[in-house]
Amino acid sequence: MPFDFSGKRVLVAGGSRGIGRAIALNFAFSGADVSICARAADALAAARADIAAHGHGVHAAQCDLGDASSVEHYVAEAAAALGGIDVLVNNASGFGMSDDEAGWAAGLSVDVMAMVRASHAALPWLRKAGAGASIIHISSISAYRPSTRSAPYAAAKAAMNSYTGSQAAMLSRQGIRVNAIAPGSIEFPGGVWDQRKQAADGLYERTLKSIPFGRLGTPDEIAEVALFLASSHARWITGQTLIVDGGQLLGA
Fold first, then answer.
1. What is the sign, positive or negative, of the torsion defined by CA atoms of 35, 181, 134, 105?
2. What is the domain partition of the chain in residue ranges?
3. Whether 238 contacts 44, CB under 8 Å
4. In degrees, to the nearest 5, what angle opens at C-alpha 181 toward C-alphas 110 and 82?
5. Which string of DSSP letters, residue by residue, matches 188-208?
6. CA dihedral of 104, 106, 112, 117, whole degrees rounded to 10
7. Which DSSP state fits 251?
8. How far apart are CA 93 and CA 10, in angstroms?
9. CB-hemisphere CA count at 13 Å for 9?
10. Phi, psi of 26 (to 5 degrees)
């Protein structure tokens, strides 16, 4: 379905590569002004150039999403550059895999607290945006099953799903919708699953066999769902986490 986000201001926290980059590009292609942030300067600059090629307003800034002051500063800078915020997308992950202090700190500081902090910082502008304002969190199907390989990551994503419902309930009276997307295994150059494929340790092949459609997903397939959830087509949807995994959980 066609989407028209002309005149809308979209902030994608964690938007330089993979799913975040695809979301930012798709919003720009649909007419939105877009701001992205990331830590890596080179990837950020490349993504900014790709977004700018669509001819709409673009803002990009380096940001450590695990740091509270950095998040607050970025959101304020993005809102000033775009003239407001209509849609906030929280996409970043710390990929806390190991069941130790470092793994839990990564998951809680980036997946969970960056989502909370960016939402709080963006709220004044989302309230001003009026009808159509929304928040979208990028979670994972890892939230739905036990994990011996990445327990902190799975727990952080489960917390995101829970907060999505709570946040939607808190903001519904203000006309701000909150939803989440739980992607399955998504493959793109340089991404986690591309790395596992190159490692040839058997995990990629086992995961591939678990997906009924016989392939891993693409960033664009998540981005298109994000645009739907932010659009007027989803105006009666809030507090939901939409699984987008090609049936991967069905074969778990």
1. negative
2. 9-188+218-244
3. no
4. 65
5. -TTSHHHHHHHHTSSHHHHHH
6. 140
7. G
8. 19
9. 18
10. -65, -40
Which residues are known catalytic residues?
153
- Bridge partners (DSSP) of residue 137 are 90, 180
Write down the residue that tokens 């701000």 correspond to.
Answer: 176
Token pair 């960056």 is at which residue?
114
Q: pLDDT digit string (tens) for 5-31?
A: 999 999 999 999 999 999 999 999 999
pTM (2 decimals)? 0.95
| pLDDT one-digit tens code per residue, 132-186 | 999 999 999 999 999 998 999 999 999 999 999 999 999 999 999 999 999 999 9
24: tokens are 């930012």
Measure the CA–CA gap between 19 and 17, rounded to whole angstroms. Answer: 6
DSSP characters for 122-156?
A: HHHHHHHH-TT-EEEEE--GGGGS--SS-HHHHHH
DSSP 107: I
CB 150 within 8 A of CB 142: yes
Superfamily of domain 9-188+218-244: NAD(P)-binding Rossmann-like Domain (3.40.50.720)
Amino acid at site 54 = H
* Beta strand residue intervals within the chain, DSSP E: 9-13, 33-38, 58-62, 87-90, 134-138, 177-183, 241-244
In the block, tokens 């939105």 appear at: 32
| Structure tokens that stand for 139 in this block | 């979670």
